[in-house]
């Protein structure tokens, strides 16, 4: 692939990417979430999202010839296969049936002679032996006639691979984060299988953000960052540290001058073995101590559990473990208790949890305070009525304080821009006058200018009101520009807590799970 | 400018209003007495108003239009039957019937709400069948319940009659309260309209209270509500109970105006006109206000009242009246349901 450039309505997501793949090579593609790995693969497979949005620039050469891949069918014809992150298997079918789906081996019979090929009998013996052969290639001892439903996820992954290698002309096989859902031992046998395939001459493109795996199996490594090619290196010429550095390295502009050391301040929040069952963001035992008045960052790659921490603290997903607020235990799984203990939450799911989209700005700002703290309520004997004037006044004040650009306090939040919606969410949290404000992905999907204002607001709150701010963000640069300390979450646990001025390599290693390996070597 | 104005009123309402105007004009041309149409529209608005109002807490709390309204209606009927058995008359009987019907409505409503909390996402269909089956169960109940007044039971055998006259009991009490005569022997049912508006006012107060805000929040965005410390299931339960109780009171007001109590299969389809009315009034399956109730019940009932004599004038084939009534009312219901908006 040469000089691949792709933009989605003006926003360039890939710029001049070159990628070369040799026969029998394991080539790893590394990058953070949003670095452009998926887009690149979509181009390779001719997915319709690419062509519906205006195609791409650059060219793809296959065996020295220009290949014009306009649909996944073209890609398959050339012998490019893919093992998906989500399993594309039919649970009610046996392994053989899944492997041979739409490529069934058939025999003609009486009916088919009359009605055509669609009516031919399936040759199960031949299909089973083919499936067996594919499974044996992978060293997998499961029976080919077992139904897929109920198989452990590790085996499902293998069935996917078996299906791809059963296609006789397969030349390139793409693995899209294959170990993301696997346990450690399963991941190991998968990596072994990948190496077996490479030895058979199939070129492997291995997408991952796990440094340890990549270093174990890859021959060459291409690193993407923000849609640009950082480097392509061979494994022998590089080290885990160097790759980690390249993966996250970015110029950091500190918004707060000094990095404060607040370890002398009392501990305001203490998490002990916190476990949160949030789908896709499971937390598997986090221990943290956060000091009063701190701006604390929680970073890490997507799906590793960083988002789950704040959601668990607010009682939105089933949570276990122990949480101490100012030394007092917090009742878990009870959002009322969390609010009453001085927490306020700005959700990462702004439009889903954060806002009432068809209600006015003022109602959005006031609702939680009304429900949880009886604010803006007038009492007449046993009847309560909302204090509309009070709400209006407070909303006006918030609008000017946070510079929310809107037509007025009665405008519905649906029509606000992302940045202004986020400000409304923050205003709602501030109305609760919290001690600790949990902010998840504060700048996701909002433009650069608004990002700055949102972060500035958080810094101001911390300085002026002494609020403890806990920011969860996928954007490491953002955390490093405002936080006093940053915890990196990996595979559901805290991989390490580092100051914001730690080296790029250190962050990279913590995020991509290469830390242990480097420590071992030292 | 014009477009945004149309959007704020809603195209379905404009279409229905235009249709209503056209019908009124035709009625005028055909020489159908307008004063009669006007007064029977008002009567029907008052009769059905509270049943339509019963939809508001259900929609606001997030369970959607209450198709299980027959549950509440049955409780209201029970209340009236008890007052007849106790040989009560006049306003004492009317208000006693309402008070008696509230506890069973609350109990039934909480069971119904508990069930609805277990089937989130498919409330409408299940509620419809809860309504239907409760009617079927009460068919047995009407036969077995130990009522003894000769006015309500069959003279021979056991069980309650199909229709029970309320003449001399609570018939037309609210209709005749402060009634204002006009035109040719027509009158405005002031008492009933005031009662309806008073109920609307109470609901309006409720929606502006803390409890109302909590219910609204739980209805429009359950996840937001949870993060605000609101117990969503509890809000839905309260909404269902309120809706069922209003259904009970609504049928009492309805019956006093109708002057008959209708048992057995009569409550079966009572939910549909109410649902249709509030949807025509501009409510969606997630959002409803008092103005939706008032506009909706007026448009729906006026259409029904005006369409019938007009149709009968045009097609004078004798027994088409009943068929036209069914076509028109079901037609409006169908139109309302197709216009039901999901969110905004």
What does this structure look like?
The complex is a heterodimer of chains A (522) and B (344). Chain A folds into two domains: 2-238, P-loop containing nucleotide triphosphate hydrolases (Rossmann fold, 3-Layer(aba) Sandwich); 267-521, P-loop containing nucleotide triphosphate hydrolases (Rossmann fold, 3-Layer(aba) Sandwich). Chain A is 37% helix and 24% strand. The two termini of chain A are 38 Å apart. In chain A, helix 6 packs across helix 7 (153-166) and helix 14 (361-373) runs parallel beside helix 16. With 522 residues, chain A is an alpha/beta fold. Chain A has 20 helices and 24 strands. The radius of gyration of chain A is 27 Å and the shape is elongated. In chain A, a hairpin with a 2-residue loop joins strand 19 and strand 20. In chain A, strands 6-9-10-3-11-12 form a six-stranded mixed beta sheet, sandwiched between helices. A six-stranded mixed beta sheet of chain A has the order 18-21-22-15-23-24, sandwiched between helices. Chain B is built from 15 helices and four strands. Chain B has one domain (13-339): Orthogonal Bundle (ABC transporter involved in vitamin B12 uptake, BtuC), CATH 1.10.3470. Chain B is mainly alpha-helical. In chain B, 47% of the residues are buried. Helices cover 71% and strands 3% of the residues of chain B. In chain B, a hairpin with a 3-residue loop joins strand 2 (180-182) and strand 3. In chain B, the strands form two sheets. Chain B has a two-stranded antiparallel sheet.
